[in-house]
Amino acid sequence: MDQSLISAFREVPLLYAFIIGLVTAIGPCPLSSNVAAVAYVSSKFASSRGTILAGAMYTIGRALTYSAIGLMAYVFGSAIIDNAALLQDYEKAIAGSLLIIVGLIMLGILKPGISFGDGLKLKYGAIFSEHGAMGAFMLGAIFALAFCPYTAVMFFGLLIPLALSASVMGACLPLLFGIGTGMPVLAFSILLGISATFAKAYISNIVKAEPYVRKALGAIFLAYGAYLLFVYLT
After folding, report:
1. Is-contact 204 65, C-beta < 8 A?
2. Crossing angle of helices 173-194/28-44, nearest 10°?
3. Which residues span the domain enclosing 75?
4. What is the pLDDT of residues 96-109, one digit of tens each?
5. Residue 104 domain-assigned?
6. Is 203 among the domain residues?
7. Is residue 65 part of a domain?
8. Which of these, 67, 59, 24, 16, lies nearest to 188 by C-alpha position?
């Protein structure tokens, strides 16, 4: 990525990680998982307190899973820093290519059919959905393990490189990323605890706005990725 953008991100890496998580949450795979979690939260809990607790536990489950994966990537990936000079010449090409892939997926032009972890969701999703708030926690953890190409690019392609360059704070970034991916469910749970009408309006607005937001972000990623490749090639 160009140096001015990298410098800006390094000024607020925690916010950047959270925003990347939010953007990831509206991707094809995480969105389907979050919709399933919303259905679980809205059907299994009668009290406001139980509903909000379930949404919080689901988000914590996602966040801790991403933290564990991110910590492993951070520890093992730190060795790459020793070869940073070797990779520096290709930085714009790599970042540009990743952003183009993300943009094409968000625009619906590229539709990769592979996904890691779907078997876990099918096998354990129904089991954990019968275990209250702890079940919500386990659902968040299991759903976070379902990496599709879009999620993988956002997490390993955009987040982890920043984490590796953010010194000690970098180990905390996957936690913020995970919170961002679960935030739509947490927000729904809070609204449902306050008012079912507000919650329904929230879901309705999310469903209506999602294609436009996703395509707008996809176009931005695609354009910026193309710009980075152009800069690299010229």
Report:
1. no
2. 40
3. 3-89+111-193
4. 787 888 888 878 78
5. no
6. no
7. yes
8. 59
- In whole angstroms, what is the distance from residue 57 CA to residue 121 CA? 17
Within-domain flag for 229? no
Strands (E), 56-142: none
Angle at 186 between CA 19 and CA 23, to 5 degrees: 25
Measured in degrees and rounded to the nearest 5, phi and psi for residue 144 equal -65, -25
- What is the total count of domains within the chain? 1
The alpha carbon dihedral of 170, 172, 175, 177 has a sign of negative
pLDDT digits (tens, 9 = 90+) for 65-88: 999 988 887 777 665 555 555 555
Contact 25, 145 (CB under 8 A): no
DSSP 153: I
Name the one residue in this structure whose structure tokens are 């996904």.
Answer: 115
Rg of the chain over Cα atoms, rounded to whole angstroms, equals 18
Q: How far is CA 147 from the centre of its chain?
A: 10
Q: Flag whether pLDDT at 3 surpasses 50.
A: no
CA angle 230–210–49, rounded 5-degree value: 130
Structure-token pair, residue 196:
């079912």
Report the distance separating Cα 104 and Cα 100, nearest Å. 6
Q: How far is CA 91 from CA 3, 84, 94, in A?
A: 10, 10, 5
Residues 194, 216: Cα–Cα separation, whole Å: 31
What sign has the CA pseudo-torsion 118, 119, 122, 123? negative
